Amino acid sequence: MRQRSLIAITAALSAGALTLTACGSRDSDDKGSDSGGGTTVTIGVDAPLTGDLSALGLGIKNSVDLAAKTANKKKYVDGVTFKIEALDDQAQPSSGQQNATKLVADKSVLGVVGPLNSSVAESMQKVFDDAKLVEVSPANTNPALTQGTDWQNSKKRVYNSYFRTATTDAIQGPFAAQYLFNDAKKKKVFVIDDKKTYGAGLAATFTKEFQKLGGAVAGTEHINPDSKDFSAIATKVKNSGADVVYYGGEYPQAGPLSKQIKAAGAKIPVVGGDGIYSADFIKLAGASAAGDLATSVGAPVEELPSAKEFVANYKAENYKEAFEAYGGYSYDSAWAIIEAVKKVVDDNDGKLPDDARAKVTAAMQNVSFDGVTGKVSFDEFGDATNKQLTVYAVENGAWKSVKSGTYTG
Q1: Whole-angstrom Cα distance, residue 262 to residue 173?
Q2: Which residues pair with 369 in a beta bridge?
Q3: Cα-atom radius of gyration of the chain, to the nearest Å?
Q4: If we measure between CA atoms, which residue out of 387, 391, 385 comes closest to residue 404?
Q5: How far is Cα 326 from Cα 367, in angstroms, rounded to an integer?
């Protein structure tokens, strides 16, 4: 799925919820809605806006809203006003598919940012692709979404309308393995996953690289994502002799899992991917989370010169929620859509053509700009060309960046 838990910044981003504008009137073509001499283009957002993963989802929604507001303020696309329509998928594939159908039906929607979860993306891709509606995810990391189910042997692009600004688990899992084995000197791992598309895929790529480096797997387990009692697994971890736990999954389960592993007497770090990289993981895991690790896509946003304007503008808008792990990537995903719309408008004498959706999707392939997270562009599969990752550790109740780099295969 998922960059540094910005607790210090989160504290600064205090009061005031933003009321999101609804999408414009619906037309019978793909030109967006006509609003008195101008055109209103809606950017759809699909993310978990309620439920356990809402901290990440609301950060995505707010960051897309900020991109739309910024484009409007700058009058970045002549004659076009951008609005967003944010739909809640509750991290459920069935809800995501329903949301995709709803967004396709609104002809003012020329691009969609989301979803958060790879499993939700699987349910949405064909709906968008059939409608030639471009989708840019700031958080999906499962390689199969862009490179096909047999990506390890034969990469093949499946959907031309799907892009992402986050790098994939094909890189993130091995990157974590290299850090743990070479830098942290961990040699015996207990691997746990939540059986979901993201978690199981991430655990598999991690395990393969860890064993390739010479590390041993002390045991493996799968958890029920609906459970909060992991005491039996915690006991297995303690008895396994592992010096580290790798968890493929998300923070609502990872936090309690870490806490219960420590309580069982296994004083070893729990490590995960961007799915656990949230301030909420630390809240759930408690004081025993100290020393736990997470990898996440990109470099720490607050340490990037390119992100200073984003951080300042986000704070100025007084969003109630923090931008969290995917804020910068969500802004860049939305801006990629805005850039594609601009290209289509510029190429058509300053107005949107009848086949705007198809042309925006085609234009996305060649979008390239300096974004919040660095250089934003896409390869032949629709994957981000930015392959940087960062390891974070829990120190003094907050995530602190430890090492940034790229996976060397």
Answers
A1: 23
A2: 376
A3: 21
A4: 391
A5: 20
Name the residue among 210, 394, 360 with its Cα closest to residue 288.
Answer: 394
Pairwise CA distance, residues 112 & 123, whole Å: 14
Task: Please list the alpha-helical segments (H only) found in 75-152.
Answer: 93-105, 118-130, 144-147
Q: Could you tell me the two tokens for 222? A: 């799968």
Three-state DSSP string of 245-279:
EEEECCHHHHHHHHHHHHHCCCCCCEEECHHHCCH
Report pLDDT for 152: 86
CA 225/CA 36 separation, integer angstroms:
49
CA distance 394 to 401: 9
pLDDT at 15: 30
pLDDT tens sequence across 306-345: 899 999 999 999 999 999 989 999 999 999 999 999 999 9
160-205 pLDDT, tens digit each: 999 999 999 999 999 999 999 999 999 999 999 999 999 999 999 9
**15 exposure class (CB count in 10 Å sphere: 0-12, 13-18, 19+):** exposed
**Angstrom distance (rounded) from CA 276 to CA 258:** 11
State the Cα–Cα distance between residues 230 and 285, nearest whole angstrom. 13
- Residue 11 is predicted with a pLDDT of 31
* Torsion angle, alpha carbons of 50, 52, 55, 57, to 10: -60
